[in-house]
Amino acid sequence: MTDRSRLLRGGARAVTGLLVVAAAAAGVVLLGNVPLPAVAREPLALTVDTTQNTNRSLVCAGSFSELGADPEQPGVAIPVGEATVATSGAAAETATLARSAGSGLPVVVSAPMADPLASAQLQSIDSENLRGAAASSCSEPSNEQWLVGGATSLGLATTLSLGNPGTVPATVSITVFDENGEVDAVQTAGVIVAPGTQQTVSLNGYAPDRERLAVRVESTGAPVAAHLGVAQSSGITPFGISGVTPQTDPATSLVIPAVENADGDGRGPNDSGEGDAFPAIVRALAPGDAGGTATVRALDQNGTSTDLGTIELAPKAVGELSIATLPAGTNALVVEADVPVIAGALGSAEDPDTREHDFEWFAPAPIIAADTEVAAPLISGGRLVVVNPSDAEAEITIVRADGKGKTTSAAVAPGAAAVISAPAGATITSSEPVHAGVRAVTETAIAGYPILAPDPRDGTLTVYPR
Q: Of 262, 299, 311, 325, which residue is least crowded by CB atoms under 10 Å?
């Protein structure tokens, strides 16, 4: 083959290659501008019930703890006696938490998440150093909770119990607030609560000589259940005891059901010459950086609302309203503020003949959603109080949790707080959102607690499998 032939053949191949490349490029451009049929497929989504086969646990405070019961350890809280636990709902199992001293161990009640469950405890004490009745709701462990009540001034002792029903240790941070603001952080510290145990600490040691107390409890590692125990003496004479149920979140509107102040009947005026001998008290705390104003009003069974006064709130300081005379027939208090607050109310009882006195710190109750079955345990002698904050009448259906007995009903007027008849182990369902609580009052004792509706957490999770 001559050189000229080789050149001609090579040129022809080059031209052919260029034509192929050009044709391919033109095809790409053409395909890019011509719409092609698309295949669309929605991602597969599965909804999973995260509460299936899980249990809900409630922790009771256990027996009341007395400071100074051991002269050699005056700062140590020693459990005294035993509390009685009332439970409503199909409890799957019960257990106890261990602690270093005393009997009357804290009870843990558990049941499937989907079943109504609530428990409360009552303890009556009549000893040389303590006298009265203390009640509280058994609460679900939480990573953050608040408590209002008590003091550490002369004659008053306040303890904080921390129960950990979990399987890992809990590291608990305690922040104390008083009438002047947040207590110096140097005086508060972390507490380690081992799995399956309860620790009780003295707030008299954390914040001595305080007239008003509020406590924030935060835990990491495991959630805990917190309760306060408050004891008071007048000289060497016991003056009363109280248990305090925790509340979870500050809010601009709080309902405190089942409040009563029975001490004024037949006992004349207080030291100022007016009002009840031992006035009812409302305390509130604005835990944020801004202060505000809280108004307090009383509700009765007819829906009558009576303004009682206001509390001026400095940031992080516990404010107080003393109510000279609680209106007759009061069954609940409403605290409304222009900033989120926590609150509590003090009521008293005293026998005019024996002068035996008692008091109780009542805590706010969470809202019970309409058409939701909620367990409502009643302690011995307890009366159920239902508060209807809506503008429509609430129809309450009451059944026994064990399924025995007849279903009954009661109507609560708009804006009313009414005492309704219910068995000891009841569940209630309301046609309107309501709040509920229980109180037990005699001439020489007063106790009460809120009905704690389950946390309305979302029990579903959407999963997108690959």
A: 325
Is 267 a domain residue?
A: yes
Judging by beta carbons within 10 Å of its beta carbon (0-12, 13-18, 19+), is residue 202 exposed, middle or buried?
Answer: buried
Instruction: Judge whether 466 lies within some domain.
Output: no
Selection from 22, 29, 161, 40 nearest residue 101 by Cα: 161
Q: What is the pTM (predicted TM-score) of this model? A: 0.85
- Residue 282 near residue 341, CB atoms below 8 Å: no
Measured CA to CA in angstroms, residue 52 lies from 48, 112, 141, 349, 395 at distances of: 9, 8, 19, 45, 31
> What region, left, alpha or beta, does residue 389 occupy, with left being phi > 0 and alpha being psi -120 to 50 degrees?
alpha
What H or E segment, with its residue span, contains residue 148?
Answer: strand 144-148
For 118, half-sphere exposure in the C-beta direction (CA atoms, 13 angstrom radius) is 28
Q: Are residues 67 and 10 in the same domain?
A: no
Each residue's pLDDT tens digit, 231-284: 999 888 999 999 999 999 999 999 999 999 986 444 445 555 567 889 999 999
Q: Round to whole Å and give the CA distance between 334 and 303.
A: 12
